[in-house]
Write a structure and sequence with these properties.
The protein is flat. The strands form four sheets. It has a four-stranded antiparallel beta sheet with strand order 7-10-9-8, with no helix packed on it. About 45% of the residues lie in helices and about 20% in strands. It has three domains: about 5-100, Arc Repressor Mutant, subunit A (Orthogonal Bundle), CATH 1.10.10; about 110-200; about 205-240, no CATH class. Helix 1 (about 10-15) crosses helix 5. It is of the alpha+beta class.
Length: about 270
């Protein structure tokens, strides 16, 4: 099955701007519909019908996609135009792999939801990598492995390691994806249901008078923390940010194209030889 790569960096940038998002999703839809990532057409009405848009929306989406560099238009000598969707990831950078059959409907909300999956999945991967690196730095088997893990951790983090780095709150997800709480909740439910991640709920018991625990209810304290009251167990719990474990990662480094580091190394070698 044909795979499609979506750059993590490109997805983040697209989610931050409404017009850019429309242009990105238009190019992504072409990639999902056509294996060669191009659409041949003679008239605008014909192309709009194939893409499932009316003429006005098709022109608007195409203009935005061309403006932001996600698509380009070419014309051959017979007058046949071709819309080509450019590559949506950078060489040797992290990207999200998906398949053409994974999305049932290629509507704008569905494609936007896919970009949210891309960003959230990558962030969960990063959090797990940081946590695993810290564990190796503290509980390494050899001195060499401990030193290596500490150097890696220093490159990953600007500040010393904190337990907060191991959790991922809805507020952070909303900030990363420029989405609402409802949209973020749908993203997590979808990732958990698909078996990509496992959700680990974090709760801490708080001291509350048992007389106040007569009904199931919840409230937010002065710091904005959610307190859940359980009438069955006669106690209160502080709901903390959830932790997530990656079960099936779709994020990896793309190996297509030319590695700029290899080119630089070869140029230095040639320069030293001459």
């Amino acid at each position: 099955m044909h795979q499609i790569r979506i750059g993590i960096k490109q997805a983040k940038i697209a989610l931050g701007d409404k017009n850019r998002l429309v242009g990105f999703c238009f190019a992504l839809k072409i990639k999902f519909l056509f294996r060669a990532s191009d659409l041949h057409f003679r008239s605008t009405n014909q192309a709009a019908k194939v893409m499932g848009y009316n003429k006005k929306d098709f022109k608007q989406y195409l203009d935005l996609s061309v403006k932001f560099g996600y698509c380009r238009i070419e014309t051959n000598k017979f007058g046949v135009k071709r819309i080509i969707a450019n590559r949506l990831y950078d060489s040797f950078q992290y990207s999200y792999k998906t398949r053409r059959c994974e999305i049932a409907k290629l509507t704008l909300p569905q494609l936007r939801s896919l970009l949210c999956d891309v960003v959230v999945s990558n962030k969960i991967n990063v959090i797990e990598n940081v946590s695993n690196t810290h564990c190796r730095a503290v509980n390494g088997n050899t001195i060499k492995s401990v030193r290596s893990a500490k150097k890696t951790e220093a490159r990953m983090l600007e500040r010393p390691f904190n337990e907060k780095y191991t959790s991922y709150s809805y507020t952070s997800m909303m900030k990363d994806t420029c989405s609402t709480r409802y949209q973020v909740g749908k993203t997590i439910k979808k990732l958990v249901k698909s078996g990509a991640v496992k959700k680990i709920v974090q709760c801490t018991e708080v001291g509350i008078d048992a007389c106040a625990c007569t009904n199931n209810w919840h409230y937010y304290d002065a710091f904005g923390n959610l307190i859940i009251i359980s009438a069955k167990y006669r106690k209160g719990q502080l709901r903390c940010a959830n932790k997530y474990k990656v079960l099936k990662s779709q994020v990896s480094k793309s190996k297509s194209g030319t590695n700029p580091k290899i080119i630089e190394r070869k140029m230095k070698w040639v320069k030293n030889r001459t």
